[in-house]
Amino acid sequence: MDEPPEAPRLRELARHFTVPGLQFAALDGDAVRAFEFGDRRLGEPGPVGAETPFPLASVTKVLIATVVLQLAEESDLDLDAPIAEHLPGLGRLGESTARRLLSHTSGVPDLPARQLGPEAPLAEHVRADPDVALVCAPGTFSYSNFGYAMLCHLVEVVLGMGWREAARSFVLAPLGVPEPAGDTPATAEHAVHLATGAVAVVEPELPACVVAAGTVALSARQLLPLAAVHCGPSAVIAPATAALMREPVGGAEPFGLAAGWGLGLASFGDGWFGHDGNTGGTTCTLRIHPQRRRALVLTTNATSGRRLAEQFLAELEVGSYRAPAPAETLGGAELRAVAGQLCGTYRSGDRVVEVALGGDGGLSFGGSGIVLFRDLLFRLAPPPGQPGGATSDEFRDVHRFLRSPVTGRVDALQFGGARVMSRQQV
Q: Which of 133, 195, 263, 348 could form a disulfide with 387 if both were Cys (CB 3.0 to 4.6 A apart)?
């Protein structure tokens, strides 16, 4: 396969963002082009190859959603029925529907308050906290890894097989996607500090309760057939079913992540759909334009791959969503006047954060300073003297406080990619 026209720019971006290795695969009509660059592990021989597995991270959810919608298509599952029909004894969790879990509108927190060790089976993780406190009313968007772990367990119960086996048997195998061979070296994962150029090999671990939501590993070429399901007829799901994955759910606002969210795929505007995945050392970017029959996959083995993907997509004008730019900064008397409405304890599952007003007149979020803007958007403030703080991902991301549409009171915040944390009553 000839080197694609994107190759020179991807090499340049990889060097600029200190990304040791990447994979690129694209579909344009019936034509496929692909490119691999760099090393699996910094400082050691072993180039990234066409079959090198990269963690899909949260792009795994697209695979899970496809299996769930297959079950709905075959009338084995009602998307709008409480999952308690198949999973009794789940308490409040059993009231969730597959449709709301798929679209992150169930109100289920990103992580449950009670978590078990990695040796526990998926069923026990799902049932460990049946009376979990919802972070928002059903119908409101709040990204939930745990919600997709629940869907994996639902698949297991309906089909009587493990969710991985179901994904292989009913999606990957019909698409002609082979499992990575056991002797195929996987990529290492790298944490990159762009300001200093420091790179460290890392071994991040997902919480055991959400492993099912983000642990499939494939190469970019192997993931591309899953994207192609949305670009024409498929042996996996019907076009109308695939469209359900893309159609934005009314009332759901995935602030900071995308323009809208369907039953498994995000909407990025201008006809582009997809999903992003990030671990503590890799990234995976999936974009699909069904009408143009175009799709692309970009994987990297570095945290800075997120910045690389943002730059690359923007240059291609491909599904590059950006959160609304913050307005004027609040400070002094104006900040003190609104601080009382914001201070308090916010919770999501096992995570609890205090928003407080310090003696210096500034707000803090879990001990980190906040830069607050007039429309209640905020960023975390980098510690004084931290190199590159103003441009690192942690301090570039935009979050926001949320007012209740009924009372007008600030009763929640969206943080870390549209994950809602509810304000605790006092």
A: 195
The residue ranges of the chain whose pLDDT is under 70 are 1, 181-183, 320, 385-392, 426
Q: Residues 175, 43: contact at Cβ < 8 Å?
A: no
In Å, what is the CA distance from 162 to each residue of 63, 176, 236, 269, 413? Answer: 14, 20, 19, 35, 36
> What are φ and ψ of residue 220, in 5° steps?
-60, -40
Per residue, the 3-state secondary structure of the chain, as one string, reads: CCCCCCHHHHHHHHHHCCCCEEEEEEEECCEEEEEEEEECCCCCCCECCCCCCEECHHHHHHHHHHHHHHHHHCCCCCCCCEHHHCCCCCHHHHHCEHHHHHCCCCCCCCCCCCCCCCCCCHHHHHHCCCCCCCCCCCCCCCCCHHHHHHHHHHHHHHHCCCHHHHHHHHHHCCCCCCCCCCCCCCCCEEEEECCCCEEEEECCCCCHHHHHHCCCEECHHHHHHHHHCCCCCCCCCCHHHHHHHHCCCCCCCCCCCCCEECCCCEEEECCEEEEEEECCCCEEEEEEECCCCEEEEEEECECCHHHHHHHHHHHHCCCCCCCCCCCCECCHHHHHHHHHHHCEEEEECCEEEEEEECCCCCEEECCEEEEEECCCEEEECCCCCCCCHHHCHHHHCCEEEEECCCCCCEEEEEECCCEEEEECCC
Whole-structure pTM over 0.90, yes or no?
A: yes
Non-local CB neighbours of 154 within 8 Å, separated by 6+ positions = 68, 77, 83, 86, 87, 98
Taking alpha carbons only, the member of 101, 215, 88, 87 closest to residue 153 is 87
Q: 142-164, pLDDT tens digit by residue?
A: 999 999 999 999 999 999 999 99
Give me the phi and psi of 183, to 5 degrees please. -95, 10
